[in-house]
UniProtKB/TrEMBL annotation:
Domain RecF/RecN/SMC N-terminal residues, every copy: 5-521
Domain of life of the source: Bacteria
NCBIfam families found in the cross-reference section: recN
Name of the molecule in the record: DNA repair protein RecN
Keyword terms, alphabetized: ATP-binding, Coiled coil, DNA damage, DNA repair, Nucleotide-binding
GO CC annotation: bacterial nucleoid
GO biological processes: DNA recombination; DNA repair; SOS response
Keyword Kinase: no
Length: 575
């Protein structure tokens, strides 16, 4: 809802401030008084293009400020996107300089001009000449209106459809991933198969290279090793120009045992020598075993060298250690097994996809048919509404379209785009004259006729249309009497659920206003300026009388104006 409008130095406006009210706000005044300038100023706040010619003569800039009570969740979301703190009211300002610069602010924060349009389209609809702020002109909004008219039935179907569609997207991602894996796997299959065969034929075993390296060292140094072992054994058993070590120890033991009866303390020393004797005997036995193991075999040495060379080439080729190669061989087997299983996985996912698409189509067709039913009812209601507004030649239709998409779904003989809300693309079409083709709402010529058409539509969709403020200009062009009365009554009914601003020359419409503002020109300090006044009841009587009688206002005119206002009040009280 538009709470307040401040305008400075815009055309004939020097400095005005208007506090708008809930319900129906009517703006009246002589032609040229500045009513349209006020509507233009709201348009500028909503992002309309500005010309420096709009700046009042003698001023350096024009300034507009609008204060809104924000109710629209869509508007709140956009406000948050621009990093603007949420407050109870939204203050939008725009300054236009003689240099052609624009400074736009929302709650004091500088924003681009596009921000005004993005936020404004969810807060105000303007139906006036050259104005393009009607969200109703956006065909994407038409489907939303249709669905909200369908209430719970549509909501339930859409929720189910969204769940299915999200699952379809997920399955599609999984299938694409699997197909990519398959494509890459097929390129790897031959290499992996070759590597598998190569590694299996290598008969690798853990730590084999280390074991072979030890064996190689023994074989290469076998002569030196043998000499050392034989020397050690001979010293133990045969001696070297002296008694063998074991024989010497045996004699030492005999000598000490002969005196052990005299020296009890010598037993510990004797036991130590005996332990050494037995240990050396065991060592001598081990040396014999080592000697028997040493068998220099040139052929075996060649085989060890060849095997080690083969293993080194293999490790270098794969850039892995022997143990890593053994592990990699197992990984290859797993990869090849996975490749074989990919086709099966893809088929399983394709089967899931087909099942989901069947469910999707079933729900999407139900939703499509339900929307058709809602559209048919909407068409009848709007045409009836237009007849009441003396517009019998007007045709209104809800057009259902599909968008071609070769990757879409097959419906009614063509491939069409689809999404979480189904496959319908809806647009409201209208023809204002008999015999003329139906056209989109945005193609209607502006003026009173188009405003009345918009009023008829808004009146029917009032319960689901979320725009909190509607502005009508020229809605009474070319009508009067009973038709003007009906237009006024419908404006009042629409205004029961939202704020309506209406610029009018019709006394019938003016009488039904909840608030009445008079716009007029005055001369101040030899300058013509526009001023605005909110009228009391008595001043409303005078203004309605002026609208009825023009320059010749009689007591009868005053009396009739008073009666019209009284009758309008009775209508409002009973409706």
């Amino acid at each position: 809802m538009l709470l307040k409008l401040n305008v400075k130095n815009l055309a004939l406006i020097e400095d005005i401030s208007i506090d708008f009210k809930p319900g129906l706000n009517v703006l009246t005044g002589e032609t040229g008084a500045g009513k349209s300038i006020l509507i233009d100023s709201i348009g500028l706040i909503l992002g309309d293009r500005a010309s420096t010619e709009l700046i009042r003569t003698g001023a350096e800039n024009a300034y507009i400020e609008a204060v809104f009570d924000v109710r629209s969740e869509e508007a709140k979301n956009i406000i948050r996107e621009y990093g603007i703190d949420e407050e109870e009211t939204l203050i939008i300002t725009r300054e236009i300089t003689l240099q052609g610069k624009n400074f736009c602010r929302i709650n004091g924060k500088l924003v681009p001009l596009s921000a005004l349009k993005n936020i404004g389209r969810y807060m105000v609809d303007i139906f006036a000449q050259h104005q393009t702020y009607q969200l109703l002109f956006d065909s994407e909004y038409h489907l939303k209106i249709l669905d909200e008219l369908g209430e719970k039935k549509v909501e339930t179907l859409k929720k189910e459809l969204k769940i299915i569609f999200e699952k379809i997207k997920e399955i599609n991602r999984e299938i694409k991933t699997l197909l990519k894996e398959k494509s890459e796997a097929e390129k790897l299959r031959d290499r992996l198969s070759f590597e598998k065969e190569e590694l299996e034929n290598a008969f690798l075993s853990p730590e084999e290279d280390k074991i072979l390296e030890e064996e190689r060292e023994i074989l290469v140094n076998s002569e030196k090793i043998m000499k050392s072992l034989i020397l050690a054994e001979s010293l133990l058993y045969e001696g070297n120009d002296s008694l063998p070590v074991l024989e010497l120890l045996d004699k030492i033991i005999d000598a000490l045992e002969g005196i052990s009866t005299y020296f009890k303390d010598i037993d510990r020393t004797l036991n130590t020598i005996k332990e050494s004797y037995y240990s050396l005997q065991e060592a001598a036995s081990d040396l014999r075993k080592f000697i028997n193991r040493i068998d220099f075999n040139p052929e075996r040495l060649d085989r060890v060298f060849d095997r080690l060379s083969f293993l080194e080439r293999l490790k270098k080729k794969y850039g892995m250690s022997l143990n890593e190669l053994i592990k990699y061989k197992d990984e290859i087997n797993k990869k090849l097994e996975d490749i074989l299983n990919l086709d099966e996985k893809i088929e399983i996912k394709n089967s899931e996809y087909r099942s989901l698409m069947e469910r999707y189509m079933d729900n999407a067709i139900k939703l499509h048919n339900l929307r058709k039913e809602i559209a048919e009812k909407l068409e009848k209601k709007i045409l009836k509404e237009l007849e009441e507004l003396a517009m019998k030649g007007v045709q209104f239709s809800v057009d259902f379209k599909f968008k071609d998409d070769m990757e879409g779904i097959y419906f009614e003989g063509q491939k069409i785009a689809y999404g979480e809300d189904g496959f319908d693309f809806v647009e409201f079409l209208i023809s204002t004259n008999t015999g003329e083709p139906l056209k989109p709402l945005s193609k209607i010529a502006s003026g009173g006729e188009s405003s009345r058409i918009m009023l008829a539509i808004k009146n029917i969709i009032a319960d689901v249309d979320k725009i909190p403020c509607l502005i009508f200009d020229e809605i009474d062009t070319g009508i009067g009497g009973r038709t003007a009365q009906i237009v006024g009554e419908k404006l009042y009914k629409v205004a029961k659920n939202r704020q309506v601003l209406c610029v009018t020359h019709s006394p019938q419409i003016a009488c039904l206003g909840d608030a009445h503002f008079q716009i007029k020109k005055i001369v101040k300090d030899n300058k013509t300026i526009t001023v605005v006044e909110e009228l009391t009841f008595e001043k409303r009587v005078e203004e309605v009388a002026r609208m009825l009688g023009g320059t010749q206002i009689t007591s009868n005119t005053i009396q009739y104006a008073r009666e019209m206002l009284t009758m309008a009040q009775r209508f409002k009280e009973s409706n």
